């Protein structure tokens, strides 16, 4: 039997829909949202933090920030906006840790959902033959690591930096040096709970609602909000020797490290290898590392190694963050460019880009590592080069000066030259963490996959409410 309270709620909802039958002016937004009963709460003031991200190049002020107290809060808000349909311009952006580069987790005059506030989905580790952890989409990977290590377990695939949320990296792919062996993070997920752009909550997996499952993985937040993810786990090693992971740091001539080796005119590649081991396997590990090193050519004096705990290794970028923050250098603008380059064109690309375009003006580390397509599922939304092996090349620039090559404009113009060269020389590069401004560019990015992307958008978020900061679809008006 419906209670009086339920009738009242239904009445209120009908009134709201009625009130919003004409276009909702944004200044009335707080009133309309304030009437919804929530486990969490809305903020309507001091919203500037939700208009910032790591890239520090884009800022869009939202109308409100939701701190969800439950998954039901997210369902209510999205459904509320969905019911307003095309009569409202209101959009909704899930914000993970805000480590996007170009406003992707922002919503101009819309609602930002602070996913880290979603504490109602408790982390639960299940050990056994195929161990896994259930965690909130707003959970940071560093917290997942700490919790799973209590059981001697850990996720298989990582990003280089762990202070990112599950929902944020799964919306992209989540890659680092281990992706060669284990695939990206999106290849290591068993199940998801999703709030779609219609405000429905749906559990999906490769077996159940599989189209939604694959759409959301690498889906740039376009098809739904990840509220829970089931992540595959493995036995965790205790130690890590810094020479299974391979990453290469490229040092064009002008860089500090390269000049240390008096390398005028040549590009130095600094190979970073990591070998996981347990203390009782130390002897074998030494031999294995030696065997690997004999197969490599390198400047003997440049070889060094460090032994660190598994946590120290995985969380290594955080120690740099602490140092950079202390110098005020973490909050600077970051005009990063991330490209996936097919193996057949990597030499050509490296010669031109590292040897010429960036010869004297690299303004941050350049990371490079191979990835194998075998470990990627082509039913997901990510597009990667059509070749068995491709390389992630990450130009991790910081704009440290207001003019010259290391300024925002200087770096953006170098990025543009790299992209223009790649197009002209038919490198067949794909952007990772893609950033485009027009639908035409997005279509070109997705190529034959565009139709599927668009079909999924119509199915799961027909009014284009979600993740407006990606600038792929514009809410119909
Ligand atoms: P946000 O920036 O908050 O969100 C990103 C996008 O996902 C937005 O469109 C947002 O709306 C959407 N979104 C967020 N949460 C959800 C959710 N729960 N459900 C649905 N959509 C959601 N990437 C790698 O792959 N490998 C790396 O090694 C790596 N290293 C990095 C190091 C640093 C220092 C930084 C700043 C970034 C790095 N990244 C790396 C990129 C990173 O994976 C992406 O920027 C990611 O989007 C950041 O996660 P976030 O939790 O901050 O997400």
From TrEMBL:
GO biological process: cytokinin metabolic process
EC id: 1.5.99.12
The protein's assembly and partners: Monomer.
The family this protein is said to belong to: Belongs to the oxygen-dependent FAD-linked oxidoreductase family.
Catalysed conversion reaction: N(6)-dimethylallyladenine + A + H2O = 3-methyl-2-butenal + adenine + AH2
Name the record gives this protein: cytokinin dehydrogenase
Keyword Flavoprotein: yes
Record flagged with keyword Transmembrane: no
SUPFAM superfamilies linked: FAD-binding/transporter-associated domain-like (SSF56176), FAD-linked oxidases, C-terminal domain (SSF55103)
Cofactor section: FAD
Taxonomy of the source species: Eukaryota, Viridiplantae, Streptophyta, Embryophyta, Tracheophyta
UniProt GO MF annotations: cytokinin dehydrogenase activity; FAD binding
Signal peptide: 1-21
UniProtKB keywords: FAD, Flavoprotein, Glycoprotein, Oxidoreductase, Signal
Top-rank EC class of the record's enzyme: oxidoreductase
The FAD-binding PCMH-type domain, residue ranges: 58-236
InterPro entries per UniProt: Cytok_DH_C_sf (IPR016170), Cytokinin_DH_FAD/cytokin-bd (IPR015345), FAD-bd_PCMH (IPR016166), FAD-bd_PCMH-like_sf (IPR036318), FAD-bd_PCMH_sub1 (IPR016167), FAD-bd_PCMH_sub2 (IPR016169), FAD-linked_Oxase-like_C (IPR016164), FAD-linked_Oxidoreductases_BP (IPR050432)
Source organism of the structure: Eleusine coracana subsp. coracana
């Amino acid at each position: 039997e419906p209670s009086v309270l339920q009738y009242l709620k239904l009445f209120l909802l009908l009134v709201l829909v009625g009130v919003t039958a004409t276009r909702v002016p944004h200044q009335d937004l707080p009133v309309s949202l304030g009437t919804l009963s929530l486990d969490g709460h809305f903020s309507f003031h001091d919203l500037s933090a939700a208009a910032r991200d790591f890239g520090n190049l884009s800022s869009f002020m939202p109308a409100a920030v939701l701190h969800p107290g439950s998954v039901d809060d997210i369902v209510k808000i999205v459904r509320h906006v969905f019911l307003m349909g095309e009569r409202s311009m209101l959009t909704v952006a899930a914000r993970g840790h805000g480590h996007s580069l170009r406003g992707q987790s922002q919503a101009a005059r819309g609602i930002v959902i602070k996913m880290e506030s979603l504490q109602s989905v408790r982390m639960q580790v299940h050990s056994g033959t195929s161990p896994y952890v259930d965690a909130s989409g707003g959970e940071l990977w560093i917290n997942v690591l700490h919790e799973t290590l209590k059981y001697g377990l850990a996720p298989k695939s990582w990003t280089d930096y762990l202070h990112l949320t599950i929902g944020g990296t799964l919306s992209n792919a989540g890659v680092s040096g281990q992706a060669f062996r284990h695939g990206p993070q999106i290849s290591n997920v068993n199940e998801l709970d999703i709030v779609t752009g219609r405000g429905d909550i749906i559990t999906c997996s490769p077996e159940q609602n599989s189209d939604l499952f694959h759409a959301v993985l690498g889906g740039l937040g376009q098809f739904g909000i990840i509220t829970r993810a089931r992540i595959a786990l493995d036995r965790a090693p205790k130690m890590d020797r810094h020479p299974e992971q391979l990453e290469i740091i490229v040092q064009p001539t002008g860089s500090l490290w390269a000049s240390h080796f008096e390398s005028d005119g040549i590009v130095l590649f600094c190979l970073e290898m990591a070998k996981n081991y347990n203390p009782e396997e130390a002897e074998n590990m030494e031999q294995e590392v030696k065997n690997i090193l004999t197969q490599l050519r390198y400047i003997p004096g440049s070889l060094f190694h460090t032994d660190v705990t598994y946590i120290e290794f995985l969380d290594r970028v955080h120690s740099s963050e602490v140092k950079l923050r202390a110098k005020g250098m973490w909050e600077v603008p970051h005009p990063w460019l991330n490209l996936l380059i097919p193996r057949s064109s990597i030499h050509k690309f490296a010669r031109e880009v590292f040897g010429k375009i960036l010869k004297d003006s690299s303004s941050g580390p350049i990371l490079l590592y191979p990835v194998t397509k075998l470990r990627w599922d082509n039913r997901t939304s990510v597009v990667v080069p059509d070749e068995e092996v491709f390389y992630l090349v990450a130009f991790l620039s910081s704009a440290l000066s207001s003019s010259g090559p290391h300024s925002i404009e200087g770096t953006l113009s170098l990025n543009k030259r790299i992209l223009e060269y790649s197009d002209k020389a038919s490198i067949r590069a794909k952007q990772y963490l893609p950033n485009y401004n027009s639908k035409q560019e997005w279509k070109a990015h997705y190529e034959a996959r565009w139709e599927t992307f668009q079909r999924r958008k119509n199915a799961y978020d027909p009014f284009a409410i979600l993740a407006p900061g990606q600038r792929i679809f514009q809410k119909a008006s």
